[in-house]
């Protein structure tokens, strides 16, 4: 073997065993076989990375084969998108193939099966065929057309091909075993009539092969050695083998089908049908919406090929279905961008700060390090002046002992600049802060080498010079669904779990002028805010940035260490209850609150407050829209909000509206907690 057994996944074990048993390595060939009926998503990335990764490991060719056997759902747009995504991930295919390339050969083999009395034309309805197939525990019954004369089936099949019959009137079925314990072996359909234009063959055909018939035969034509499929095709393997056995030349390589678990990701859906529904109902802006789990959506959001390949590597190849926490994906992109993204400053929720003892009209050029994680990454210029923007939530008049940002009488450092001290504020008639006035210590400039510059303060703030700032639109994305498994509920559709606050558009953010020259390939860390990338909507001098991921590592509870060379890659299983994120724990406790009283109620409420210490405002705000009848969840949200406000979260319109709605609620606990928050 090429490597120690411990470092191999089970697919590699299969290949190594075949090689050890005499299979020539030069005969290894793999394929990635997408159907062009939608865009590829992060689940497909697992198969892409596995198949092309095997090709790289064994120096074997990998075909890209489009299984385009259903023209009613397939489009050239999807073909182009799939090719673009695979190339972007950094893989190159040996041959670009299509099942439609083999339509004539598949037809000719089907004719031969009819002649060998192994296939027949059936004219039952789809409902009749389904009914006479039986159940997994009872055998099926023969079609009344199962013993139709060979000549008659040949004639009908030819007329089907010639377009003489309407769709659904006839099918070609393999004649196998209606009593087989494997339902797929009970005379499966091989061809059906579809009167639709094909994106490659046009109107040349009106009969199209079923996937099971085209799959193995296409593998055989291409001499694929290992046909790797997801687990739902395990029950199809017997049929795959039967079909191949009918046409194989003993002198040629016989393909082998083996199965692995598909990649499922929490807080999203992986069905292309459901993703298409999101697009068609305009819940998202398109297949490449940055909230989508599609590769194109992830690319637009700012994910990198390196991060997706790393994610696929860490998640591993499993034999059983499992759910990978989306936090692992976020960890991978955060880890990659931390090493590569340029550090810049931008202010998304601005308030004006005036340094009263800084000379009016003066501009100073400071240096901001491009990336402290990269040696020799260099610096770039950032202008500093008397009037700046800082984040509104970075200031409180009286911050208390646990507030480490700017407050009156306290000092903080401005990133790469000076230490400042809050002195006073200017407010409007409604009490809203318009300006913060402060003073600076001119001896404390970062990097100046003075003793004062080494003085430590508890907080460091990012900022932008007002006179030099450029404006940009910033799009902040949250998870598209509020539920970990939105399509797993028996009595609710997945659309019921849409997060109404999955997109927050900031029309006028302020950025340092360095960003005026940003390109689509650049990745940035907005200091203290997260990682951002330029969106294709940017044009004519109007910058649009997408937030890729925040700076906070939400994957801390998982083992994210890269496996040692001789250790197996981790299989990420669904998280046990104790490891679920704090917000999920709050929701779960909240659902039970209205059924509790006395000490149990008090204990539950205290638990919510403890978990709230780990929750961010961005995570909590979507729960403000919880239905009024879900009183327990609203109480839990109010309790958690109280913790955030005590920690320095500034009130905004959404917070105020949620508190006010609580004050007039019928539930006395909810009213009481809302009153505490003012």
TrEMBL record:
Classification via PROSITE patterns: AA_TRNA_LIGASE_I (PS00178)
Residues that, per the record, bind L-glutamine: 67, 211
UniProt organism field: Algoriphagus aquatilis
Pfam families with a match to the protein in the record: tRNA-synt_1c, tRNA-synt_1c_C, tRNA-synt_1c_C2
The protein, known as: Glutamine--tRNA ligase
Family: Belongs to the class-I aminoacyl-tRNA synthetase family.
Positions annotated to bind ATP: 35-37, 230, 270-272
Protein keywords: Aminoacyl-tRNA synthetase, ATP-binding, Cytoplasm, Ligase, Nucleotide-binding, Protein biosynthesis
Region ranges (Disordered): 125-145, 558-577
